Amino acid sequence: MHVLLIEPDRLQATALTQALTQAGHSVAQAVSAQAAVARADERQPDVVVLELQLPHHNGVEFLYEFRSYFEWLRIPVVVHSFVPPRELKHAVTLARELGVVQTLYKPQTTLQQLCAAVAHAAAPVAS
Amino acid sequence: MQQNGDGAQLSDQERLFLGLAEQLSRPLLQIAQLAELAAHDELAAAHERWQTAAAVSHASLQLVESYALSLRVHGKVTPLHLEPVTVSSLLYDTAHHLQPFAKQYDVELQLEPGPRVQPIIADRAVLQSALTSLGQVFVVAQAEADERTPVRLSAHRGRHGMVAGLYGKSTLGAESLRRAQTLYGQARQPLEHLVSGPAAGVFVADSLLRTLAARLHVARYRGLTGLAATLQPSQQLQLV
Prior knowledge:
Helix content of chain A: 25-40%
Oligomer: heterodimer
CATH architecture of chain A: 3-Layer(aba) Sandwich
Helix content of chain B: 40-55%
Number of strands of chain B: 9
Strand order of the largest sheet of chain A: 2-1-3-4-5
CATH architecture of chain B: 2-Layer Sandwich
Strand content of chain B: 15-25%
Structural class of chain B: alpha+beta
């Protein structure tokens, strides 16, 4: 599975990349929304892991742009963020319109849980 | 006291401490993640040490997050989400969160959702944070006690409502609660006690419960002493 990891914190990006790699995924890192679009252009991800608090453009703005490209419409997105879920004003929109399959609150999520969420997001839906 | 556009009410000092709590979460998370990764290393002893580091970091994060949550709710930065809550499922989830921490301290957790426990209307996240903070305090206290007895998460029907809390044979009780509540009179921020120490965990739990119009009190149940909160059962949900 190829994961696009959008994480501005370098230390966390390294730790998350290592955990996802150990779980058998390949990872492309991006520190901003702009860089993320470029990484996705280079190689289409199977899953996107997104921190909502990004420099310049926030994660929701990134999602609107990301979903505007037809070929990226169905790529599942896992939000992994410091924004508390109860303060996420766009939660419904994120899920319904922007294809966020799971929202994880960083302080309460272990690396193992993140890897499980990525594997679950990427799994084909049973018909 | 300042009020922002969203109706949030936090004093300058509370705003400062909320920012500090949020800031503290980041390095703690980084430590927890590094420890979790290192736990996959091959040396068995190092593996165990890193597992401990990960569990302790996550427990500290939980305390900091609970503190920030209590400030947010008290200051109306975030509203209460009241919903029907099944007390037994709340206890199960709390035990699930506490288990890795208790394991590190070699303390057994017992779950005892008593008979005829009624559903309540509450903010589930707030209640769970309160019980988890309290649970960590009990685990540490129990590990320090001479006699190794389990920590019991329990709920039962009391005279004034549903009583949910933690019980054990440690010395936690009236004195710990008084010390924690004294912090209210002096200052709202027990920051020097925030990372460890019973007062901080009990203070945070009590502070969270106050947002639900409940308070911690000393309780005795089946021969054990503990700290618990009395929650009002939902009259409507009893009919469902």
